[in-house]
Amino acid sequence: MPVLKPKLLTTLRPYSLRQLRADCVAGVIVGIVALLSAVVADGMIGGPAAP
After folding, report:
1. pTM for the full model?
2. Dihedral angle of Cα 44, 46, 47, 49, to the nearest 10 degrees
3. Spatial separation of the C-alpha atoms in residues 21 and 16, rounded to whole Å
4. Residue 25 and residue 7: Cα distance in Å, rounded?
């Protein structure tokens, strides 16, 4: 009978600290771009602060 291993363990085994750092930086950049995009879009459509 084969031994079952969680897929998470076999997937994360080659995942390095360098890759984790790169993914975190990419996530922060995507978050900043999304927030800026939302602010610009809100300003273009009038948003709640429009007179």
Report:
1. 0.64
2. 130
3. 9
4. 25
Instruction: Give me the phi and psi of 16, to 5 degrees please.
Output: -100, 170
Question: Is the model more confident about 10 or about 47?
Answer: 10
Q: What's the confidence (pLDDT) of residue 29?
A: 98
Q: Tell me the H-state helices in 1-51.
A: 7-12, 17-45
DSSP assignment letter at 36: H
User: What are 15-36's pLDDT values in tens digits?
Assistant: 899 999 999 999 999 999 999 9
